[in-house]
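Bumping with the actual sequence this time:
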Amino acid sequence: MIKVLIADNHPIVRLGIKQVLESSQDIEIIADVSTTSELFEALAKVTPDVVMLEMDIPEINGIATLRKMKLEFPDIKTLMYSGQSEDVYALSTIRAGAFGYLSKTADLDYIISAVKKVSEGNMFITNELAQRLAFDEGTQKPRRFFRKLSSREVEVLKLLASGKRNKEVAEGLNLNEKTVSTYKARLMKKLNVDNLVDLLQQAKALELY
């Protein structure tokens, strides 16, 4: 049996995923949680094979949570899922240590196959994403720019885009403020802009958040 823990702050989403996964005889849901603190409390008591982690789970963002899990529970495999742009966040989460990424717009059939594939230690992305990633970079603006960004830069960009100041970004990612300023300067250079407003407009145009 594949033991799964679901981490999502929406009860109806957790219930829906649970029902889909439990339709498979090979999968057992051993816990479901709504915040990152609940997630780590649960992981201290149970050992899932796969954690299904929502990108925007409250308290700590999904990528930071993933990094913390990799340090504290290195044997647990994580399948990230989100309504966010698949082109951007799939690569970002996989770089940070996830075994797969599932868009909330994907077919229901993908959920079971994704969990099974990840449980075996294999990488999972949808066929649609795999095909898009195979296209020439010159025709895929969001991907071409995104490939230049590290997963940490994407985290900083996302928090800046949500209206947070440098100090708040630093606190949210456990960095010092000077480091955040460095990331911001690096983002501006990579996206070829010279101020925060243009940076966020460029990021939005390129579907980076």
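The tokens above came from a reply further down the thread. The two ends are 36 Å apart (CA to CA).
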